[in-house]
């Protein structure tokens, strides 16, 4: 079978072919085929080796390197009153909570600590002295806020493979090593007047939000609060979103694993149409062993990642 690449359009064609559906029907057949393709794709991403069921292979391409910036913590005094659900916070000097005069969209997802009690998360930004955040503090007037307490992790983040670390060519490259704390312990630390310095402790917390295409989101809280903008790096476990467009979307894993993904798709359609496994299932299992074998030689992988429990 020819290598079709990992373009979703080909995968939907393959599903329709096995099911006997009209691959030009964009109203019913192709959307339904895309559902089957995503299920097959998830099976491939699960990394189950046919000879060792229940022991997932940690795909190298699902362990990328990432980086985030811990912003310098700025202290200010707020004006205004919180409403239930969403809140307007106004800087009392008509300046900006984070930078000098502007609210870049990159500040969405950052955390604000109010009087050492309420930890808020920026959800949208508007003008030069107003941000909108979710929170539960009833009155913001004259209360002290500290910015940069919390940072959203990437949308596909599902756990750390390695702890955070400072780039080796940075000023902190030979400095403190990050250690993990529980979210509860971290929040207790933050209830005191936050001291600033070089962050060296962190806690990962699941956010009470999720998106339809990605799912659960996570954030990191750091201690002590940063006395300067600092970039940190990490290797993490990635959970790709489902493919929602059968025309323009590609799958992670590259062309190297495209035959295996296509066989997973054909095996899923084969079972859906005949209610039993057949030749495509056998071919997929063979291809899966080959993909896992090739991938295992590419990169060193750490133990399975985790999210710290209290």
Structural notes for this entry:
The strands form 4 sheets. A 6-stranded antiparallel beta barrel has the order 2-3-6-5-4-7. It has helices at residues 8-19, 29-45, 183-190, 258-274, 279-296; strands at 65-70, 75-79, 87-91, 111-114, 118-125, 130-134, 144-147, 150-152, 157-160, 179-180, 196-197, 201-211, 215-223, 225-226, 230-238. β4 (111-114) and β5 form a beta hairpin. The chain is of the alpha+beta class. It folds into 2 domains: 8-62 and 240-296, no CATH class; 65-237, no CATH class.
List keywords for this structure.
alpha+beta; 15 strands; 2 domains; 5 helices; single chain; 310 residues; elongated; six-stranded antiparallel β-barrel
In a few lines, what is going on in this structure?
The chain is 23% helix and 25% strand.
Total E-strand runs = 15
Adjacency order of strands in the biggest sheet: 2-3-6-5-4-7
Strand content: 25-35%
SS summary, helix count: 5
Total number of distinct structural domains: 2
User: Which structural class do you get from the secondary structure elements?
Assistant: alpha+beta
Low-pLDDT runs? 82-86, 91-96, 99-103, 303-310
What is the strand and helix layout of this fold?
Blueprint: H1 8-19, H2 29-45, E1 65-70, E2 75-79, E3 87-91, E4 111-114, E5 118-125, E6 130-134, E7 144-147, E8 150-152, E9 157-160, E10 179-180, H3 183-190, E11 196-197, E12 201-211, E13 215-223, E14 225-226, E15 230-238, H4 258-274, H5 279-296
Parallel strand pairs: 10-12, 11-14
Antiparallel strand pairs: 1-15, 2-3, 2-7, 3-6, 4-5, 4-7, 5-6, 8-13, 9-15, 12-13
Helix pairs in contact: 1-2, 1-4, 2-4, 4-5
């Amino acid at each position: 079978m020819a290598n079709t690449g990992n373009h979703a359009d080909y995968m939907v064609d393959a599903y329709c072919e096995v099911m006997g559906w009209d691959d030009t029907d964009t109203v019913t057949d192709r959307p339904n085929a895309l559902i089957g393709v995503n299920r097959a794709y998830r099976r491939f991403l699960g990394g189950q080796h046919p000879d060792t069921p229940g022991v997932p292979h940690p795909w190298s391409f699902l362990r990328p390197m990432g980086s985030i910036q811990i912003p310098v913590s700025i202290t200010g005094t707020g004006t205004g009153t919180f409403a239930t659900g969403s809140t307007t916070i106004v800087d009392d000097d008509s300046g900006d909570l984070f930078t000098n005069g502007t609210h870049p969209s990159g500040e969405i997802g950052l955390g604000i600590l109010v009087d050492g009690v309420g930890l808020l998360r920026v959800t949208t930004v508007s003008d030069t002295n107003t941000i909108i955040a979710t929170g539960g503090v009833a009155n913001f007037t004259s209360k002290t806020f500290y910015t940069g307490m919390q940072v959203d992790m990437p949308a596909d983040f599902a756990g750390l493979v390695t702890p955070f670390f400072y780039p080796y060519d940075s000023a902190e490259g030979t400095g403190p090593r990050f250690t993990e704390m529980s979210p509860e312990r971290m929040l207790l630390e933050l209830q005191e007047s936050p001291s600033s310095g070089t962050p060296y402790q962190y806690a990962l917390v699941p956010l009470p939000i999720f998106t339809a295409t990605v799912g659960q989101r996570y954030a990191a809280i750091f201690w002590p609060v940063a006395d300067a903008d600092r970039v940190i790096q990490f290797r993490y476990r990635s959970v790709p979103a489902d493919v929602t467009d059968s025309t323009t979307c590609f799958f992670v894993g590259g062309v190297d694993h495209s035959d295996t993904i296509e066989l997973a798709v054909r095996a899923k359609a084969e079972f859906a149409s005949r209610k039993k496994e057949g030749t495509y299932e056998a071919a997929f299992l063979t291809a899966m062993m080959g993909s896992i074998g090739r991938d295992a030689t590419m990169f060193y992988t750490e133990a399975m990642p985790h999210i710290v429990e209290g």
